[in-house]
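#onboarding

Welcome to the new folks! Below is a worked example of what a typical request in this channel looks like: someone posts a single protein sequence, and someone else replies with the predicted structure as tokens. Don't worry about understanding the tokens yet, we'll cover that in week two.

Example request:
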Amino acid sequence: MNHDIYIYLLVMSAVTLAIRILPVTLIRRPIKNQFLRSFLFYVPYVTLAVMTFPAIMDATRSPYAGLLALLVGIGLAWKGFSLFKVAAACCIVVFGVELILL
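Example response:
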């Protein structure tokens, strides 16, 4: 494990910069393809969902509490409740389920 850490840092920096600089330099005119535009619009939401949903199940002591809070949160958000109300309801659900189960 005595590898040169500077090589790792250089590769990481090059990849990070390439991801940020290449689209700006290669795409100079507006994107007119509707499929590509919608794909790029939803990429941040998908990335956030991929990072958040597994954490919901692992953040509680019981996976059932996390699953029930997820379902309640989806239902309340679907009904149009605010983010604060959805988050508060999910916390209350987790607290209640863990109080009963554990």
